[in-house]
């Protein structure tokens, strides 16, 4: 592949990075704010996309399809939250149970079809991969609006109480905060955003597939971890932390597209993703325990030798 051909694939990679950044922002709410590993997202991403596609092919407006995709994801997250808070099921297991149930729900939505197509010639969608530059500015606007809304929301009394719940649940309870309600709201909001991402993804590709959300949690974690490492020095600002997910997701998909372009088998991409996430997750530990530790031991030896 020539360099010019490689550059020609970049708008598509940027679009995918921005679309998955939406899901990454949703996962950020549970993973970073609540400190809950929520596996519902592998199912809610698909559910949001399938609902969006069904609405469009039945004559609904594409904006209504996005809204209902968001609501579908929100309901998925609410189920996980209620399983966790009302029944005392561990959060990670509650997410797995919801994800498992969603497999059947998604087949009911599609009437047992594995693929739902949205022909571009017959239906209007918010964006299409056939026009990547048009899709690019729309993706930027959608992601920007989500960050603005979340920045406002987490500055409100409710948003601050959710953040307090994630920081210290026992202390929040002692302050009279309804932590169980906050967990349900956060899980619902998180998966609602993931469902919206699935809806945008479906409209972009012009189809929804029953397996398209498999591994969504890993892609989202990749975006969070990569972006977090790059913006670690600016971690105090909440808007910057949300924006770091976008940068991480775009970098991930540029790397992804580059590897594909240079001949890696698509079937190996899950392995590639796992390796990338493991590397980025391991970098802070290696730096803290090996590089910084080695430098500190070297400094201590110099101090001792100087003293002698």
Domain module tally: 2
**Separate helix tally:** 12
Q: What are the secondary-structure elements, in order, as H or E?
A: HHHHHEHHHHEHHH
Task: Give a short account of the largest sheet.
Answer: 2 strands, antiparallel
| N/C terminus separation | 62 Å
Name of the level-1 CATH class of the largest domain = Mainly Alpha
Assign a percent range to the helix content: over 70%
CATH architecture annotation name of the largest domain: Orthogonal Bundle
Shape: globular
Radius of gyration: 21 Å
Total strands: the figure is 2
> How much of the polypeptide forms β-strand, as a percent range?
under 5%
Structural class per helix/strand content?
mainly alpha
For the largest sheet, list the strands in their spatial order: 1-2
**What oligomeric assembly is this protein in?**
single chain
What are the segments in which pLDDT stays under 50 over at least 5 consecutive residues?
none
The pLDDT mean sits at 86
Briefly note the CATH topology name of the largest domain. ABC transporter involved in vitamin B12 uptake, BtuC
